[in-house]
Amino acid sequence: MATPATTEALRRELERLEQADLYRRRRIAAWSPELGPAELVVDGRRCLAFCSNDYLGLARDPRLAEALAAHARTGGTGSGAAHLVAGHGPEHQALEEELAEFTGFPRALLFSTGYMANLGLLGALAERGDLVAEDRLNHASLLDASRLSGATVRRYAHADAAAAVRRLQGAARRRFIVTDGVFSMDGDAAPLAALADAARRHQAELLVDDAHGLGVLGPEGTGSVAAAGLQPADVTALVGTLGKAFGTFGAFVAGGEAVIETLVQRARSYIYTTAPPPPLAAATRRALAIARAEPWRRARLETLVARFRHGAATLGLRLLPSATPIQPVLAGSSGVALQAAAALFEAGLWVTPIRPPTIPAGTARLRITLSAAHEEADVDRLLEALATVAALRAEAGA
Fold first, then answer.
1. Is 244 designated active site?
2. I need a surface site. Which of 4, 108, 163, 330 has the fewest CB within 10 A?
């Protein structure tokens, strides 16, 4: 157990977080077939969820469940070892090949999580003497990975390619520009074309984490790089996750032969962990095929995003400039965000309030996410509830 002094210090810090409206609490969310595809039972209350990253509505598609169960029955549930020991099976290999073909890169390498993929990528490619320029609003895993690599890390103004160039100045063995493709809390897209041009002109490597763009943006959902008019050759490596638009779990890095083989040899988060369960790889292969064969999912998302933004603008809500399924409604203070989320929950709508340190102080928000599992009537219901919350706050003088 922790010492009494440490326990008391931890208790005081937890109290501080509570008083500052920054304390995080888990809710228990469950789905069953009698619910709608965008519904959950959350702490015992049936809710329409607007906080999932299941952008294409595949997480509860029975075809994925069938693929997972079929493979588990015939091949077992676990890989039993790391990829390089005895855990790399036919489903893993097939999924890697299909992900490489989907993204247009020569190879892809599976990781257990997106966090591990970013740690492995930066840890294998960057080291002391290198220089990494990171967007100020990059995901925490990218920032942590750069710091742990031992390279010099410089953060540039959000989505500002000129600022990225300025941060590349100075002596370095190797230079990297690292960015999200779609920023997870703001929902906007990185200026990838400008960043790729900057990388070419300054002999830098461009690394893109497209966790929230793959499956959603670009031709056939191939992601932010394609949506920006770029080719795989313009990017050193692409990171993608499988637990968002593709509805399963895990992640991958796509890149050239030398990059991927370097990860196999040097990425500690790949080498020293158990390979993902093969049935999940089978389910992900099915998800990838469905996502490509059913473009109506992306078309519906576009319709829902436009409908929500039009309605929110009519209500005078403070939106960020996002054309993606991530639609943040700014609240300002953490207290206001918590109160608004609680009011929506009482109305049967689950929206997560996002507060510092996840986002900068003073920018607390409701992070609304849309899915192909939603209907237009669901969006209208959300807008009606948001109008009620806004009206109540106006009456209270907030």
1. yes
2. 4
